[in-house]
Amino acid sequence: MTAYEKVTAARDAKKLTSIDFIARMFGDSFIELHGDRRYSDDKAVVAGLAMLYDTPVTVIGLEKGRNTKERMERNFGQAHPEGYRKALRLMKQAEKFRRPVLCFVDTSGAFCGIGAEERGQGQAIAENIMEMMTLKTPILTILIGEGGSGGALALAVADEVWMLENAVYSVISPEGCASILWKDSTKAPEAAEALKMTAPDLFKLGVIERIIRQPKADETKMFESLKILISRTFEKNLALSDDELTSARYERFRKIGRPE
Amino acid sequence: MDLFSFRKPKNELESQPNEQQNIPFIPEEMWVKCPKCNTMLLTTDMEENLRICTKCGHHFRMNARQRIKMLADDETFTEHDADMTSTNILDFPGYEKKLEKARTKNAKESVICGECKIGGIKTVLCVMDADFMMGSMGTVTGEKITRAFEYAADKKMPVVVCTVSGGARMQEGIMSLMQMAKTSGAVKRHSDAGGLYITVLTDPTTGGVTASFAMEGDIILAEPDTLVAFAGPRVIEQTMRQKLPRDFQTSEFVLQKGFVDAVVSRDNLKNTIVKLLKIHGYCEEVPEQ
């Protein structure tokens, strides 16, 4: 697959969304929790508590919706500030109970609109990034489709970041990049290559730790092995002291783009 | 014979060089028109007035060197990491040429970091520069700002950052995005160590910079006539397909929405910063006898 084919696949309406991941991995144990306690409940963010084998976890996902009606309701996975604030509220709660946090990212980006700006989209994202950096509980983020810029990063300041093999993660959409740089959005495929947004590229750059193979048909096995991998990672990180955990997270990002 | 030789030259390019000799030479930069009140201002007057319109108070953009001169006490600024320069880390087509073009005598990177005295108080000062690729955040920008905060945390110094940015540097792709996390981590560490961080938002502050260190200050000040946004007005107009209100995303607007502590005009900026530093217990350094 070319980079742009991956972009198209990541945007495919039929692919699995965060809700699918939560349902297939946690089943009935999932309890959804709503609201940011400040303004409203943003449906572009699905969050709650679940059991991963014997371990309670906080699960937060950016949700695009699985059909037209859901997609409208979920604002196509483009969160408003209240969505990011709901996520942060539940992360802080997780920290209090030292419960690991699992995030699923699938968004073309944070919503661009009047309300979002009025309520401080930039401030909400900035606060998440800053607070996640020192959150005293393990965080693991999995990119399951589109990872669009700051709106994705607001849930991706984690101890480890994993990606499905056909997911993409970028600072800007290839269309946006092509139209700004070359005044021609039809050059998106070239931009997609240049931006290095596929899982193998990002692995090489040290931006992600693991690539998850995606089966063509039945995903049951993928979910089973994901659960084992996630559980092992949380176990390893729960054994660390607060200081070791947050220092490792700081170093993880600190080394990115450090000139020799 | 040239059939059109009788015709008067239409513009400068068509005219013969010797025809211009009689016209007194007026450099273009001598006058500048204020975009707010349309007054023609003498550039020298405007410059002397901290690049503020002498008639209506409109704030013209200012480059990093001018801003450092305005904020730091005379001869006290020492630049850090001055030689750190952007490279084409992703082999992005055309990026080297862009960098070359962007590098001028005054602007070598999109941020200048260092330490200085402000009102006699030792402070780490980072000033972004719109003259270099619209202050976009690349890995070097992120690294310099991160180092500045780490240095300040180590030396127990306050930090003042003047932001101006069009957002992430596309040519550095995901590496540019990661700088948001890197810088925020350093801000948090400085903050957890008890350090004071003052942000000064200047025109325009947008995108990844707004969504990271620009919005993370203990005190956030903004200059008048400043665009403060996550998504810029053009992006929103395109997605919403509607015209935006005129004052949308101005510093006065974000003040009213509760996202900045105060809008401070440039002639009062240094005073305000000094006051804030003193309130937080930072003292003037007494010169050794």
User: Element order, helices and strands of chain B?
Assistant: EEHHEHEEHEHEHEHHEH
> Biggest chain pair contact, residues each?
A-B, 48 and 56 residues
For the sheet with most strands of chain B, the description reads: 7 strands, mixed
The CATH architecture of chain A is: Alpha-Beta Complex
The CATH topology of the largest domain in chain B is given as 2-enoyl-CoA Hydratase, Chain A, domain 1
Cα separation of the termini of chain B: 84 Å
Count of extended strands of chain A = 8
Count of DSSP H/I helices of chain B: 9
In what range is the share of β-strand residues of chain B? Answer: 15-25%
Q: Describe the global form of chain A.
A: globular
Q: What is the CATH architecture descriptor of the largest domain in chain B?
A: Alpha-Beta Complex
In what range is the share of β-strand residues of chain A? 15-25%
Q: Which shape of chain B, going by the Cα principal axes?
A: globular
Instruction: Tell me the number of strands of chain B.
Output: 9
Which strand order does the major sheet of chain B show? 3-4-5-6-7-8-9
How much helix, percentage-wise, in residues of chain A?
40-55%
Oligomerization: heterodimer
Low-confidence stretches of chain A: none
Q: What is the helix content of chain B?
A: 25-40%
Mean pLDDT of chain A: 95
